[in-house]
Amino acid sequence: MAHRIITQIVFTGTRVLGRAFAEAYRQAAASSQHSRAAGANTSSPGAANSFASSGLTLDEACKILNVKPTQGVKTDMNNVMERFKTMFDRNEPTKGGSFYLQSKILRARERIELEVRQAEEAVEMEEMKGGWKPKIYKD
């Protein structure tokens, strides 16, 4: 009699876990399709990676570091790094700061750097589309 109860518990538990994994897979697939569709509908180069650095958008990253939103390649990275260093040092856990805030500041800097890097790559690709045009010097 005990083996029937144990077998029934095992089968019921397996069925519940199987349904939970199947539902999680369906949700992940739907989320993936939604993010691909959102990236295809926009024309900005960083739209597909709007949450590239641990869920931070570019606007959030700029607000965290208190810098102006990036203007492509024209971002003042010296200002971003200066703000990052001061805020990162102020939130040092050994000095009574918060590790959580320190990690948010780090992720914000990484997100802005990613956006600038993507903008630089887009500019390089535009230059490469024009072909190679060497400079010829005439004496």
Provide a brief overview of the structure:
The protein is mainly α and 139 residues long. The chain has helices at residues 2-41, 58-65, 77-90, 99-129.
Please, could you describe this protein's structure?
There is one protein chain. By secondary structure, the protein is mainly alpha-helical. The protein is 67% helix and 0% strand. The chain has helices spanning 2-41, 58-65, 77-90, 99-129. The model is unreliable at 43-50 (pLDDT under 50).
Number of helices: 4
Outline, from the CA principal axes? flat
Structural class: mainly alpha
Rg, please? 25 Å
Query: Which stretches are low in confidence, meaning pLDDT under 50 for 5 or more residues running?
Result: 43-50
Overall residue-averaged pLDDT value: 83
Largest sheet: none
Order of helices and strands: HHHH
Topology:
Elements: H1 2-41, H2 58-65, H3 77-90, H4 99-129
Helix pairs in contact: 2-4, 3-4
